[in-house]
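Quick note —
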Amino acid sequence: MPDIIAVIDLGKSLEKSIWTIPSIREKQLLFLEPEIVSLTREDIANITRENADPEKDAWLVFPDGTGEALGFVTRTSRYRNRRDIAKDELKSLHGVNRCLAILGAIAERAQLTNNSDSEETKFSVAISVLLPLSEWSTRKEFKQELLTALQSGFNFRGKQYRVSVELLDLKPEGLGVLMRRQLQLPKAVYRSRAILCLIMGHYNNSLYLYQGGQKIVDDCTSSGFHQLIDAVVAETALDASNVASNDLAEAIYYARSKPDLIKALLWQKVKDEEKLVQQVEQVLSVVEKVSADVWKSTQSWIDNNLGANRFKVNEVLVSGGASRFFRREIEEFFSGADVLWSCQINQLVGRDFQLPCEDAMAYRLADSYSVFEWLDNLSQSTYSSLAIGA
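Predicted structure written out below.
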């Protein structure tokens, strides 16, 4: 049995991981913000471990003496003006380092780390990583690079780790929701239905159409929620360069119901209360205008990919954090089909992680939650079979 079972979703607005220690069997969450900072040898020489959660103070040291800071720690004054989220690069390009940081943080949280500074901590994992459909062609290279990095060892927060990989699995984003639906339906019913999976994330939108149990259409576009964010920032006083990307995404996502989040982002630039109110109202107006434009573009993308198949769809499985922002539009567009929001996985997420089941985060975690359940069950059955000599 591996020491750690984990699923990692390499999102560009937030890296999300669900993990457990098999002997305890309690699901845990870990989030790593997407910002990165390249560290020089001088940076590394002056860096110290802070008394903070490891994912909030995440940094790697490379063999050549340089390194990389990841996530929340890049908000500090030392790194703030050097942050990058690599928005236009492949998720897999920095994905290996992000996976290393996440697994290092999990090892610390699971108290697997040796106390001695000189000793190397060794642990074993069963891990699944979610990649967007647009990067699926790079999966073999990514898998080999990650496998090599784990087995050869890495330095996280000044401590050395070496990982025995018992299982390394890659899955395309969105497959977890379909896997859940397959479990919910009798096999004959599943094969008789035309099922569309629509995943709307921060950077990517993906769709898969299954008929007769076979995938007949798939596509992925980079026109995710970030496009709406960029358009709103371009037309308002919001400044993306001085705000953590996750804070900006959250403020715009909840602009209609929680305008104080917008107010908090604008306060440093507009400290006059009356002008601040006017700027907030402008942002809300722009959000409405831009969201209509983005949905129109998304609708065209769906139409272009489905063609006449759109009218044959029986079920639409919708997932991804950005999907709830367009809830009304999606339900109206697919009014002739059953729209299933994450196949109710959001309720399981809410139950296990004490989240409101209608919170956007519950939907953001739905895909990885389903894959985690599969990976956890696979690990149990594999080792149970070995234990009884099957």
